[in-house]
Every structure is written in structure tokens, then in C-alpha cells.
Design goal:
Strand content: 15-25%
Order of helices and strands: HHEEHEEEHEHEHEEEHEEHEHHHHHHH
Radius of gyration: 30 Å
Number of helices: 15
Number of strands: 13
Length: 381
């Protein structure tokens, strides 16, 4: 019998207990991976390739306060800006839904084409949308989810605005970080809203990443001390502003993760303590036969480490497979776009499982190391 088979036989001596231990570690590790992935998805939104060039200018007081449309001329005069369009969030409810997970934005379709650099038109005609005042541009994910096609109607009930939308799908885009949104003409929103002369935000594109910071400062300075001061920021900063509305979600998730790890540690320590206590006499016999303390110490550490690593591997692999092949958008009703279990997250979970395997074995291993042969042989089964 080799040392490896000896350790394996001892680890599986009580098959039920070993299976329960491995299952506990697997479930806890899978939960840990899921929570870390959730934290990442909520606090680190995906960034598009052209995000460094795009800038959003909103009302400095609040995102809920609109900006005057007459600001457009002043923004267009700022050097370094390629194009600018109004960008107003409609926030309607699609069809008979009580909650719609995708957003609708009113834009000027002509300059917007130069802003949508990450996406490409895969169906329909962008030019047709430009000509059609009641047309819309729809993301591929939304088209698939609702089984829509070019030419279909999309009707939205207004929530923020006192009007409804009846749009025709003229074009479909794909390739952005969020292929769910619906874009329609701002002229239609102005017409339905009584032409209030306002926009939600300004969405613009800078010539290069090098001039983007200067453009942001110039926009802020242009409207400083006016009745409608603006706060211009990069697309990334704007996204992170929405993330901050979740509150301290990272702290909450990390606290839950600590509870999971602590519970897992208790299970592992209890299992190894029982396993070693049952074998005190056998370990005393091994010591009497000439095995050193470090040998017995290594046997116990290897047993605990092996059970924890096996459970961790099953949990990590199971979590990765589940979240990789699941329809996360359908499960969360579109709240989450992706749920990517990254190598870094899997590595952290594996490290936790390995450390817990070692830590859970330290107490029993030290007890065996201090045990004399006589004390061990006196131990009752």
C-alpha cells in the first residue's frame, strides 16, 4: 500500500461523512463564486471599446432635471467635439408589462450614428429610421427576447412623460455592451410632449481620448453660473454614478461571503476532528511502529486538504458551468446582461478552499503530534 492509497482509504473510511463534507464545501464554494460574480457585475459595469471617447452632460443639480435644448449651439462650438445629440430617457412600459428591463432613449438619429461606433446594423436600414419620424432602432437582444422583426410595432406606455409611443422597427443593431435598448427620434418626443424645449442629457463624442478631459472641463465651464449648469463626465463615470445608487452593495455581499467562509470552516474543522478522534489508537500504533510526528502531521493535513480541494473543485466547476450556460438575462428579467465567472474569481475561491482544508486539519494534527503512544493506546473507540 502506498502513502497515497493509505491517505485515500482513511479519507473515505466513512463514505457518508466524506460525501457530506465534500458536498458542504462544494455548495459553499459555489455560493461564494456566485456572490463574488454578482458583486463584480453590479459594481464593475462592462466598458465598450469607444467609451473613452463618449461624454454625457447632465444637469448638475440632478439627473431628473432636464436641460434647455438651446444649449446645443454652445456645445457644438467647443473644439474637439465630433458630434452631439440629445439623449433623453423615456422609461416607458412595453406592451402590457408591469416592468420593462430595457431602456428607451430619444436621440437625433443623424449625429447619433457617429456615436454608436461599437454597434453595427444587422437588419433593416438605418437610413430608413432617419426618414421615419415614428421609427426606432432596436437592439438584437430585445428582438430575440420578444421574437420581433423589422416592420413590427413597439408600443410603450409613458411613465416619466405624459405620452405613449407607437413605434415601427426600422433597424436592428448589435455589437455594443448592451444590445437591448430602443432608440427613437427626439422630434417625436418633442411633438408628443408639446415641444417643451428641453432634453434629458447631451451625449457627445470627442475627437480623441487625449482631448476628452479638456472637452469635459470646457463644457462645465461654458455653462457655469447659468440657470442650467451641467455636469459633463465620461461614459464610464456616468455608469459608475448609477452603480453608486445601489448603496454599499459590495460590503453587504462581502459580509455574506465571510459568513459562508466561517460556516464552511466550522464544518471542516468538526469533520476532521471527528475523523482523527476515531483513529487515535491507530495513529498511536503508527507512531509505535516508527512513524515520526511530521509523518502523521502530513497524513492528516493531506486528508483535510484533499477533501476541501475536491469539494472546492466541484463547487467552482459547477458554478462556472451553471452560470456560463444559463440564460442570465431571462432569469433576471434583463437586469443583468452577463454573469461571467472569471479566472480570478475561480482562483480566489480555490485558494479559500485550500486554506480552509489546511486550517481545519491543524488542530487535529497538532493534537496527534503531542499525543504519546501510551495516551493513544488508552483512547477508547
Amino acid at each position: 500500500m502506498t502513502l497515497a492509497t493509505f491517505i485515500l482509504k482513511n479519507a473515505l473510511r466513512n463514505v457518508r461523512r466524506a460525501a457530506l463534507t465534500i458536498s458542504s464545501v462544494a455548495v459553499s464554494t459555489a455560493l461564494m463564486v456566485s456572490l463574488m460574480t454578482l458583486e463584480r457585475e453590479l459594481t464593475v459595469p462592462p466598458e465598450a471599446a469607444g467609451a473613452s471617447l463618449r461624454i454625457i452632460a447632465r444637469n448638475k443639480v440632478s439627473l431628473m432635471q432636464n436641460l434647455p435644448a438651446k444649449q446645443l449651439a454652445a456645445i457644438q462650438r467647443i473644439p474637439g467635439i465630433v458630434t452631439v445629440t440629445p439623449f433623453s430617457y423615456f422609461g416607458g412600459l412595453f406592451a402590457e408589462e408591469d416592468f420593462t428591463s430595457f431602456a428607451q432613449f430619444a436621440v437625433d438619429p443623424v449625429p447619433f450614428r457617429a456615436i454608436l461606433v461599437d454597434g453595427r446594423i444587422i437588419d433593416g436600414s438605418y437610413d430608413e429610421w432617419v426618414k421615419n419620424r415614428t421609427g426606432c432602432l432596436v437592439g438584437q437582444d430585445t428582438m430575440k427576447r420578444y421574437k420581433l422583426k423589422v416592420g413590427d410595432r413597439m408600443r410603450f406606455r409613458g411613465t416619466f412623460y405624459p405620452c405613449d409611443l407607437d413605434l415601427r422597427i426600422d433597424a436592428v443593431y448589435q455589437g455594443t455592451v448592451d444590445d437591448r435598448n430602443v432608440f427613437f427620434q427626439h422630434k417625436l418626443l418633442d411633438e408628443l410632449g408639446g415641444d417643451p424645449g428641453t432634453v434629458g442629457t447631451w451625449y457627445l463624442r470627442a475627437e480623441s481620448a487625449e482631448v476628452a478631459d479638456r472637452v469635459i472641463h470646457q463644457i462645465n465651464d461654458t455653462f457655469a453660473n447659468t440657470s442650467a449648469e451641467v455636469r459633463a463626465e465620461s461614459e464610464r463615470a456616468f455608469q459608475m454614478g448609477f452603480v453608486s445608487m445601489w448603496g454599499n452593495v459590495s460590503q453587504l455581499i462581502r459580509t455574506v461571503n465571510l459568513v459562508v467562509v466561517f460556516t464552511l470552516a466550522l464544518v471542516a474543522v468538526s469533520t476532521m476532528s471527528m475523523a482523527v478522534r476515531e483513529r487515535f489508537r491507530e495513529l498511536a500504533v503508527l507512531k509505535a511502529l516508527g512513524f515520526q510526528r511530521r509523518d502523521l502531521f502530513g497524513f492528516i493535513l493531506a486528508e483535510g486538504f484533499g477533501l476541501s480541494v475536491l469539494g472546492g473543485a466541484l463547487g467552482i466547476g459547477g458554478a462556472w458551468a451553471f452560470w456560463t450556460f444559463s440564460d442570465i438575462q431571462g432569469m433576471t428579467k434583463g437586469i443583468l446582461l452577463v454573469f461571467e465567472v472569471t479566472p480570478r474569481i475561480m482562483g480566489m475561491a480555490a485558494a479559500v478552499a485550500a486554506v480552509l482544508g489546511v486550517v481545519s486539519s491543524l488542530g487535529p494534527a497538532l493534537a496527534v503530534g503531542r499525543m504519546s503512544v501510551v495516551q493513544g493506546l488508552k483512547t477508547l473507540d
